[in-house]
Specification:
Layout lengths: L4 E4 L4 E5 L10 E4 L2 H9 L6 H18 L6 H13 L6 H16 L5 H31 L7 E4 L14 H10 L5 E5 L6 H12 L4 E4 L4 H6 L5 E4 L3 E3 L4 E4 L2 H10 L4 E4 L5 E2 L16 H4 E2 L2 E2 L12 E4 L6 E4 L2 E3 L3 H14 L1
Parallel strand pairs: 4-5, 4-7, 5-6, 7-10, 8-11, 10-15
Antiparallel strand pairs: 1-2, 2-3, 8-9, 9-14, 12-13, 15-16
Helix pairs in contact: 1-2, 1-3, 2-3, 2-4, 2-5, 3-4, 4-5, 5-6
Bound molecules: 5-S-methyl-1-O-phosphono-5-thio-D-ribulose (MRU).
């Protein structure tokens, strides 16, 4: 799975595998403008925090391309970048990616529009490559947290599709399998968007990694029956104290894992850590359209006019997390100091 985010530099077009249509159809959506990219992010053509970040990096390049070279190109670019950064609120990788390119621009304020476009294209390509490398590195560290014969439960899709490739939670599983460990995966279906049933199951089945899909509400029973040895999930934003936002339902899984004494791991690149968020309360939680809950497969499943909750994420407190698996190693509790230490050591490099 390495062409789900593909940029054509000749045509200045970003091709995104439309994740809404999986597993039935493999169709790419073409984005030629930053507005196309914003729509693709908001409509979930592409989703998953690191994939959102890499897509946003290409979106910045398209914003630079679309700014033209008239006298106000800088204003138009700034507006494009800020609108892009606000496309979805929870995954911090989005703003992280836009800020990284904006920082490059600040450092080269004298660059004209063609020079800036070339810089942005180069950096976006680098960020895509770095994300795959980070996933592979964190996968290797995380594989040590899994034992031969483990049945690993995961929630949502933190796989190749949710990153530039290889995956975070699924990267850990892939690396363990590559080491020869026999791992079986339980993929929560992940209502309402069904990332687990549609995407995680699709990815793992393609790689011949044994996977079973379970309803979200089967989690307690599966744990009670001894069918789960480890939980590994991804994250959309990790606060400075280790509280971790991930797909709605993750918090329930973490509470159950603690009840049944099952280690609960979060796998994420360092780009998912937001040191500006002191704790989980500072993480904005996206609310998505009601139709995602009221309808399934285009058919209404709730009475008309009944309101719903559709919070897309929840926050798991650091106290429930056995470790945060990053590309620089596994951070162990107390997570706040471990996060501060790893970020400081990155700044020194
Ligand atoms: O709404 P989504 O599908 O973008 O939510 C995705 C998740 O919650 C993932 O678990 C998270 O981004 C980690 S992806 C490696």
């Amino acid at each position: 799975m390495d062409d789900h985010i593909r940029f054509d530099p000749e045509a200045l077009t970003l091709h995104l595998l439309d994740q809404r249509l999986l597993p039935d159809q493999e169709v790419h959506v073409s984005c030629r403008t930053v507005q196309d990219v914003i729509a693709a992010l908001q409509n979930m053509v592409v989703r998953g925090a690191p994939a959102i970040g890499v897509t946003a990096a290409w979106g910045c390049a398209l914003a630079a391309a679309g700014a033209g070279n008239g006298p106000d190109w800088r204003d138009r670019l700034e507006t494009g970048l800020e609108t892009l950064a606000r496309a979805r609120p929870t995954a911090v990788n989005l703003r992280w990616a836009v800020d990284r390119l904006r920082g490059l621009w600040r450092a080269r304020r004298d660059a004209d529009q063609p020079a800036l476009l070339a810089l942005f294209l180069d950096e976006a390509r680098r960020m895509q490559e770095e994300d795959v490398a980070a996933c592979k590195a964190l996968g290797r560290f995380g594989a040590d947290c899994l034992q031969d014969g483990d049945s690993v439960l995961t929630h949502c899709n933190a796989g190749a599709l949710a990153t530039a490739g290889y995956g975070t939670a699924l990267g850990v599983i892939r690396a363990a399998v590559e080491q020869g460990k026999r791992i079986r995966v339980i993929a929560d279906e992940t209502r309402p968007f069904l990332q687990g049933a549609r995407l995680t199951a699709w990815e793992l089945a393609r790689d011949n990694i044994p996977v079973r899909v379970a309803c979200d509400n089967a989690c307690a029973l599966l744990m009670q029956k001894g069918l789960v040895q480890r939980v590994v999930v991804g994250a959309d934003r990790i606060a400075a104290n280790g509280d971790a936002a991930n797909k709605i339902g993750t918090l329930g899984v973490a509470i159950l894992a603690r009840h049944f004494g099952i280690p609960f791991y979060v796998a994420a690149p360092l780009s998912t850590i937001d040191p500006a968020a002191a704790n989980g309360a500072a993480i904005p939680i996206e609310e998505r359209p009601a139709g995602e809950v009221t309808h399934m497969g285009g058919r209404r499943i709730c009475p008309e006019s009944v309101p719903v909750y559709n919070f897309a994420f929840d926050v798991t407190p650091a106290a429930l997390i056995a470790g945060i698996i990053t590309e620089r190693g596994v951070l162990r509790p107390p997570l706040g100091p471990a996060i501060a230490h790893i970020l400081a050591s990155c700044r020194e490099v």
